[in-house]
Design brief:
The protein has about 1450 residues and is mostly beta strands. It is about 5% helix and about 35% strand.
Length: about 1450
């Protein structure tokens, strides 16, 4: 009981003590007359009362809180004006003293007060203006865990127990009172002492003498004698040991010698000798050498139970010196030499490079220093030099030496200087100059770097004006001018410095893009036509369409080979744009039956074929679908130079770049390139005799535009009026995008270009999916139903059963297959059954087969499509778009003549094991694609239908049972039939499936506040309340019908000690409270002497909401341990103590007090599950309830103190109300309880590989070499700038990298082959490249237009985008070709035709103008020379200073130099 605060105990047991008369005197009882007004709380004193005025809402003052509160009473100013009933007041002339900045220091903060100001000083400073440095709590002055508290001009230490002094430096000596007894040593500690007892004593103060004989330690009837700190055992005869535990062992003295075994007996022992010894104690060693076993003069040594012969010096060996020794057996010959056996001697035959009797001398071939140019000599005979090689060391071949040359040299003796330029390291046309172990690259214009690998950036000087983007080239640059903003003219010219005027009043039509240009001094424009238009102003349409299977023929003009075509052959190419929705069509066919190239759509994908005149063919196909109605551009070309067939597409799915596929022509490709055989181009289709050579066999239906054959545009108006198949323009009806949608019931519309088709989802069918397959009802009103079918054909071992199902019955047979046979014979046994069990589809076959269960629940009243697939004995189930594998069944086969039963079978006894007959609806039942139906429904459809041969109680349509006929709705509810179910529309005060449950909250009974919650027998008005030592008292008035086995409540507080709930009747008591922030429970039972007290461990006075439960662990028992649960987690228990339920609360005289001494909020509080209400509302109807005392007031809602009202957070911090405590959310760069300290971002060491520099609200990392990133955590990838060649693997290091070379390569960059590759043997140059053998391997010199180590890559001359003014670039072999738009020409499309027409011949004007300017300049120069000489001669004197001034002026202005005779300075 002493662990409770005295005030808590008094408050908790006040009622009990008053009843028992514990106190003889009491306080006055003046509060009974309720003298306090305006919600004040009355507190009795000894002879008077005190009114505690309410702090909520309007404030009051006075003895009875009858006056409105006047805040000026406590204000320290004259002329104060207050707002009655509040704390607000104002003082006239209040001056902000902080405006003058009286506080010293950047981190100090001034706080203006009513009279004067105060300075909040940073750590380490104090004084009235923070100007004086002081010792502060930041220096941790308090020792020995003392708590430092900052005060004005210093600090104050609160010492922990056991210490004292200004800074807690004095350790109090707890041993000064000599607490330790019986000679013990006292050791002083921090707020404690320890006693070290002398032997024989124990206890906290060593006050207990230890009786060592108390444990009866002596064995075998020994007598124990107690001594100080020990005991003595007097043993009987025959025993020994400290505790007489040992019988005396005569063998203990080890009388038997030489490893013999001793056997102990009573008063004697015997010895068993090991082999080789004898005697009573085994002390005699038997001599085995007496028989002279050693031969040939060998010496015999006697051993234990054996002997040993020493044969040294006899020339013999063996156990008895009986075997002659071979002299070569010890391998005396070294370095792999051969040993020749002799009589008492041997001879060694040495390998070249070795000498000596045993070939032990290695002849040093490196003694004469054969390696030149600083090379290092290594003897081949040293095995250490062979460790890292793949060759095997052999003494037969190790005579001689190997030279390891210095870098830059090679050869047997390092006499050859390596020519590093042979590998052609200099890039981009740079010339190489060989050095020793190196080279120098002399770079071509526009390149720099060690190997001329750096393209000099001519854009570095930012030559482009007006927002132009500079594109660096080789020794040049190109300005891409910025697009013009709206209503502004664009910029052009070499440096984007000229405003382009060519598009003002341009003539471009049909949405064409006007591209202005500037050439010399002439402005003009070019029209960039959109798809579907052509010519200079984009006025000619190129779009045509096919709405019926037709085609037209276009003949290509014959190829005219001119002299300039002798080097470059032409490319065969057809390009066009198309759109269609059909998946199989021919776009064009070029050639004849024997030699042709075609482009078709096959399966929705674009495919091109090229067939040669000798029957060879090539195909190329793009993977994406193209039949979606969108426009796409397709290009098919045969490139004679690179021997490729190329198909590329631009359009949806290929927006950023063309989708491209390439197939290489065979080596003998001449048969593919007969230009004369490819002059005829059939567009949209082919004559009937050519159809067999197509893959699609269908003519094109759709639109085409921008058709070009070998660069020749094919325009609709050029075809003539005789071509009836072509319709100008693209007229297309979007069949599937009209409203309403042409396909009903979510059918999928398929656009067929000239019409459409609907793909219907089951069970819908018809042209527009507007019809449904019929439904049939089984088991209507609990009847027995089934359908029987006879199969007219075989379905085999693989078949599918599918249907739409609607049911609420969890079990029943769905479909069963049986062999045809007489009634009762074995042939009628079912061999395949689908049925329902627990709402899931089950599948089985013969009797011994397993039952396969589907994963989905299907008996929910909906109508899902279900499908069971049987494939080679494996069963699969489809439902909701998913396919599930169910397992395997024994092999079965569906034959013609078999019977199919649906929904049941004849007779009740045959369906019981499958859950009885089915009850529900079937629709669109199919076996594979065969419909199984009751009656014929539509004979016009081209589908197979089997009509039932037998039917029982099957109804057409999907009909529900009359589920309302039994009147299931109670309490006036109205019944409505749903499919095989019902719903009840209940009156306002009832709910549930059958309106059985009464509800109360609909009438809003909580008129005085609170949230209404329905109970099974009434309602509760749940609310939160705030308590400030303002208890509430309750009584159940004997209404509790069940024993109280638990108490629950929700609470929020920061009070660490208080009484939450107190319940009592007489001596019986329940007390739940807070002790040191944890829950403690005290239970007093009427029949027990000692109370049951137990506590929790968790601290809950943290300002957060917590759910508390105190309950019996086993509520069904008479007694049980009680437990504490905080937030549903066990926090404490009374175990092993047990007690029963709180039955005293069932008595009418019992009472419950809530929040006796408690400050905080409480939520729902329940005793035995019965709610303790905070507000009075309409009387609830439930039997068990608590009534609150009417004269007590409660503050509804949870409110804490206004902790943020004083704005405690500094430097712009945000104050967070944490319920009776505040927290500060500091801005970046500040920290501390009130954001008073600047954050040191470097304290956590954020820089992983670098040095941290603290910044305000951040940090800066200075990284070590090799690292980068904001925190220096990223290792710089040095491999990005490495050039590991020949497949070498770059391994990144720290500020370095290493190249790991593949086999047969070496060097720092793996640039060298070893051994060097040879032409013809190792290297074959492709594309007519020439191979040259060099010292470091074979190199390929490529033909023009190819590159790569083996000349395997064709150079793409179009990569640099050379074509200007919107021209299209075609890559050719070692060249490119620009297809210029209308109005431009030239190699790069750089020449504007219109500008040339309008341009004035400039030579006629420029030549005379330049000649005149040169003549005038010459006359002027001569005049200036004569004038200068005349002026110098006429001056007569020399002035150095004047000459300096004149010379500077002349040198800067007229560029005239001083004559030689006058250069004196």
């Amino acid at each position: 009981m002493n662990i409770w605060d005295k005030g808590l105990i008094k408050g908790a047991r006040a009622a009990k003590w008053r009843k028992e008369g514990t106190f003889c005197s009491g306080s006055s009882d003046l509060c009974t007359s309720s003298p306090c007004r305006n919600g004040a709380t009355c507190v009795n004193t000894m002879d008077d009362y005190v009114c505690l005025c309410s702090r909520e809402g309007v404030r009051y003052m006075g003895k009875d809180c009858e006056e409105l509160y006047n805040a000026c009473v406590l204000a320290k100013c004259e002329g104060c004006v207050s707002e009655p009933g509040t704390e607000h007041y104002t003082c006239p002339g209040d001056v902000n003293e902080c405006e003058s900045g009286p506080c010293v220091g950047t981190l100090s903060e001034c706080v203006d007060e009513l009279i004067g100001y105060r300075c909040l000083c940073p750590p380490g400073f104090g004084g009235e203006d923070c100007s004086r440095q002081i010792t502060d709590c930041i220096d941790d002055p308090c020792l020995n865990n003392g708590t430092c508290k900052r005060i004005v001009d210093g600090f104050e230490c609160t010492c922990s127990n056991g210490f004292s002094g200004n800074i807690c430096e004095v350790d109090l000596d707890e041993c000064s009172s000599h607490p330790c007894q019986n000679g013990a040593i006292c050791l002083d500690g921090a707020n404690k002492y320890l006693c070290f007892c002398v032997p024989g004593y124990q206890g906290h103060n060593c006050e207990i003498d230890i009786n060592e004989c108390a444990s009866r330690p002596c064995w075998n009837n020994g007598t124990c004698i107690n001594e100080k700190d020990h005991y003595i055992c007097e043993c009987l005869l025959g025993y020994s040991g400290v505790n007489c535990e040992l019988e005396i062992n005569e063998c203990e003295s080890n009388p038997c010698q030489n490893g013999a075994t001793c056997h102990d007996f009573v008063g004697l022992y015997t010895c068993d000798c090991v082999q080789g010894f004898e005697g009573s104690h085994c002390e005699i060693n038997i001599d085995e050498c007496e028989s002279d076993p050693c031969q040939n003069g060998g010496f015999c040594h006697d051993l234990i139970a054996s002997y040993e012969c020493q044969c040294e010096g006899t020339g013999f060996m063996g156990d008895h010196c009986e075997e002659d020794i071979p002299e070569c057996a010890s391998d005396p010959c070294q370095h792999g030499s051969t040993c020749l056996e002799g009589i008492n001697h041997y001879n060694c035959t040495c390998w070249p490079g070795f000498k000596g009797d045993n070939c032990e001398v290695d002849i040093d071939e490196c003694a004469d220093a054969p390696c030149e140019n600083g090379g290092e000599c290594f003897e081949k005979s040293n095995p250490d030099h062979w460790v890292t090689t793949d060759w095997e060391f052999n003494y037969a071949t190790v005579a001689g030496y190997v030279c390891q040359c210095q870098p830059g040299y090679t050869g047997e003796n390092c006499s050859v200087n390596i020519n590093e330029c042979e590998s052609e390291p200099c890039q981009n046309g740079g010339s190489c100059e060989d050095l020793i172990n190196g080279y120098t690259c002399v770079c071509a214009d526009g390149f720099a770097g060690v190997e001329c690998e750096v393209n000099v950036d001519e854009c570095e000087s930012a030559p482009c004006l007006n927002g132009g983007v500079c594109a660096d080239g080789v020794a040049e640059y190109k300005c891409h001018c910025a697009e013009a903003k709206e209503d502004l003219l664009p910029w052009g010219g070499p440096q984007c410095g000229v405003q382009l005027l060519g598009c003002i009043e341009h003539a471009c039509q049909n949405g064409a893009t006007c591209l202005p240009w500037f050439d010399g001094e002439t402005h003009g424009h070019t029209c960039l036509c959109p798809p579907g238009f052509y010519d200079d102003v984009c006025s000619t349409p190129t779009t045509f369409s096919f709405s019926s299977p037709r085609f037209f023929l276009f003949e290509v003009p014959p190829l005219e080979r001119r002299r300039r075509d002798t080097e470059h052959q032409r490319t065969l190419e057809v390009s066009l744009r198309f759109r269609t929705t059909l998946p199989n069509m021919l776009l064009f066919f070029r050639g004849s039956a024997k030699l042709f190239m075609s482009l078709e759509i096959v399966g929705g994908k674009l495919r091109t074929r090229v067939v040669s005149g000798v029957g060879e063919s090539l195909e190329a196909q793009l993977p994406g679908l193209v039949s979606d109605g969108s426009w796409r551009q397709a290009i098919v070309s045969i490139n004679e130079q690179v021997k490729n067939v190329v198909l590329q597409v631009k359009g949806p799915g290929c927006e950023n770049q063309a989708c491209r596929v390439k197939e290489k022509l065979p080596e003998d490709h001449a048969s593919f390139l007969h230009h004369k055989g490819l002059t005829k181009v059939y567009v949209g289709g082919v004559p009937e005799e050519y159809l067999e050579f197509t893959l699609s066999s269908h003519s094109f239906l759709g639109c085409m535009e921008d058709l070009q054959v070998d660069g020749h545009p094919v325009l609709p108006h050029d075809l003539g009026s005789d071509v009836e198949s072509v319709e100008v323009g693209c007229m297309k009806t979007e069949w599937c995008q009209v409203q309403p949608h042409p396909c009903s019931q979510r059918g999928r519309c398929i656009d067929l270009w000239t019409g459409y088709r609907c793909d219907c989802s089951r069970p819908h069918h018809g042209n527009d999916c507007g019809q449904d397959y019929p439904s049939y009802t089984f088991g209507h009103e609990d009847s027995t139903s089934f359908l029987a079918f006879e199969l007219l054909s075989d379905f085999g071992k693989n078949f599918t059963v599918s249907f739409l199902l609607r049911s609420l019955k969890m079990s029943g047979i769905l479909l069963q297959l049986r062999r045809a046979g007489l009634q009762g014979t074995e042939g009628e046994d079912p061999y395949f059954t689908i049925y329902l069990q627990m709402g899931r589809v089950q599948v089985t076959s013969v009797a011994e087969a397993p039952v396969l269960s589907s994963p989905g629940f299907v008996c929910n009243g909906e109508k899902p499509l279900l499908q069971v697939d049987v494939q080679e004995g494996q069963v699969f189930f489809r439902h909701g778009g998913l396919r599930h594998g169910l397992g395997s069944l024994p092999e079965l086969e569906v034959l013609g003549g078999d019977l199919v039963y649906v929904g049941g079978v004849p007779g009740e006894e045959d369906v019981a094991e499958w859950g009885g007959h089915f009850e529900g609806c079937f629709q669109d039942l199919r076996l594979d694609d065969v419909h199984l139906d009751w009656v014929s429904w539509n004979e016009t459809l081209s589908e197979t239908v089997y009509i039932s041969s037998e039917a029982e109680n099957v109804l057409p349509g999907c009909i529900s049972d009359d589920t309302c006929k039994v009147q299931p709705c109670l309490n006036g509810g109205e019944c409505t039939v749903t499919w095989n179910d019902f719903t009840c529309s209940c009156p306002q005060n009832f709910t549930g499936k059958t309106c059985k449950t009464r509800v109360w909250c609909v009438s809003n009974p909580c008129v005085n506040g609170g949230r209404c919650v329905d109970l099974f027998d009434g309602f509760e008005c749940i609310a939160n309340a705030t308590f400030d030592n303002t208890p509430l008292h309750y009584s159940a008035m004997g209404s509790l019908v069940a024993p109280v086995t638990n108490i629950t409540m929700e609470l929020q507080t920061r009070q660490v000690n208080g009484v939450l709930l107190r319940a009592w009747r007489g001596a019986e008591l329940l007390l739940i409270g807070l002790v040191d922030s944890s829950i403690q429970v005290e239970l007093h039972n009427e029949n027990s002497v000692e109370p049951v007290i137990f506590s929790g461990q968790r601290h809950i006075a943290d300002g957060n909401w917590h759910h508390l439960k105190v309950a019996m662990a086993l509520p069904e028992g008479d007694t049980s341990p009680w437990v504490i649960l905080v937030d549903s987690i066990i926090d404490g228990s009374s175990a092993p103590l047990q007690t029963g339920s709180l039955r005293f609360l069932e008595d009418r005289s019992s009472e419950v007090a809530l929040a006796d001494t408690y400050t905080g909020c409480l939520g729902a509080v329940r005793v035995g599950g019965v709610y303790l209400p905070f507000v009075n509302n309409v009387k609830p109807p439930q039997t068990s309830q608590f009534w609150r005392r009417q004269d007590e007031r409660v503050h509804i809602g949870c409110f804490g103190a206004p902790v943020c009202g004083s704005h405690p957070c500094r430097h712009g911090g945000t104050c967070l109300d944490l319920f009776n405590m505040f927290g500060c959310q500091c801005p970046s760069g500040w920290e501390g309880a009130t954001c008073e300290k600047e954050t040191d971002e470097c304290i956590l060491g954020p820089c992983v590989h670098g040095k941290c520099k603290d910044m305000f609200n951040g940090f800066d990392c200075m990284c070590h070499p090799g690292y980068t990133g904001p925190t220096c955590s990223e290792n710089v990838d040095d491999c990005k700038r490495s050039q590991c060649k020949n497949g070498g693997t770059c391994v990144d290091g720290v500020n370095d990298h290493t190249c790991i070379c593949p086999p047969k390569y070496s060097g720092t960059r793996c640039q060298f082959n070893y051994p060097p590759l040879k032409c013809e043997l190792d290297v074959h140059c492709e594309n007519d490249g020439v191979c040259h053998d060099t010292q470091w391997g074979a190199n390929c010199t490529c033909s023009p237009g190819f590159t790569g180590d083996r000349c395997e890559t064709e150079i793409n001359e179009c990569a640099s985008s050379p074509c200007l003014n919107g021209g299209s670039c075609l890559d050719r072999l070692n060249r490119f070709e620009c297809l210029c738009p209308a109005g431009f020409s030239g190699q790069f499309c750089e020449t504007n035709k219109q500008a040339q027409k309008d341009r004035i011949p400039w030579l006629a004007i420029a030549v005379p103008l330049v000649c005149g300017c040169v003549l005038l300049a010459a006359i002027g120069l001569m005049f200036m020379l004569m004038t200068a000489r005349r002026k110098r001669q006429s001056e007569g004197t020399y002035s150095p200073s004047q000459q300096e001034v004149a010379g500077a002026r002349l040198e800067m202005d007229s560029m005239l130099k001083v004559p030689p005779e006058e250069r004196l300075i």
